[in-house]
Amino acid sequence: MQVYAGCWRKGDRKMRQDYEFAEFLVAAWRLANPGERLPTSHGLLDQALERVSGDLPDRFRGYLTFFDGRTGRLCRELPAVLRSAQESFLTSEPNPTYLTAEVKIDSFLAHDLLDELGITPDSADAFGKTLRQAIVGEISSRAKSAREVANAT
Questions:
Q1: Strand partners, 67
Q2: What angle do CA 146, 150, 152 make, to 5 degrees?
Q3: Which of 20, 19, 30 minimizes the C-alpha distance to 127?
Q4: Contact of 66 with 95, CB cutoff 8 Å
Q5: pLDDT score, position 74
Q6: Can you give the residue range of the structural domain that contains 119?
Q7: pLDDT tens by residue, 67-104
Q8: Which of 66, 64, 42, 83 is CA-nearest to residue 127?
Q9: What pTM does this model have?
Q10: Cα torsion angle, 49, 51, 53, 55, sign
Q11: Closest CA to 52 of 137, 111, 118
Q12: Which long-range contacts does 137-141 make (Cβ < 8 Å, 24+ apart)?
């Protein structure tokens, strides 16, 4: 019985981390990129998060893990984080056919969420901007690779 109880607490802690990271990610994106949808498909967000994982607030360092998948590097926790964001009504529903998620919170709620997490709006805004730059960089890299392949054939 104690093993079960210990596993439950561990799972509960993991779920809490998923929801807290979802709150941070969406709030940071909203502050840094008002009016923009959050890219969620084709591993773009996964690979961008890996690039900027060193810039995460201390409370989230080491939370994200990455592995090689069929489509490149993927974030093991991202599906749960995106699901948590949708369940909390922070974003539109994550769906494999959607390329982005609509951010449903305003900047006031973003500030409240960050305050509860003990993260300053300025640091979240900086992270959101860095994440956007990493996503743009990933898109540019993929476009360059596609042009090189097209030119080689």
A1: 74
A2: 115
A3: 30
A4: no
A5: 95
A6: 2-152
A7: 999 878 999 999 999 999 999 999 997 666 778 999 99
A8: 64
A9: 0.86
A10: negative
A11: 137
A12: 137/48, 137/51, 138/44, 138/47, 138/48, 138/51, 139/44
Number of separate domains in the chain: 1
Q: How far is CA 128 from the centre of its chain?
A: 10
| Tokens 């529903």 found at | 93
Q: What is the DSSP letter of 92?
A: P
Q: pLDDT per residue over 125-153, tens digit each?
A: 999 999 999 999 998 887 787 777 778 87
Tokens of 33: 């990129």
Distance of CA 125 to the CA centre of its chain: 14
φ/ψ of residue 83, rounded to 5: -65, -40
- The answer, yes or no, to whether residue 53 has pLDDT greater than 60, is yes
Residue type, 6: G
| Residues in the chain, overall count | 153
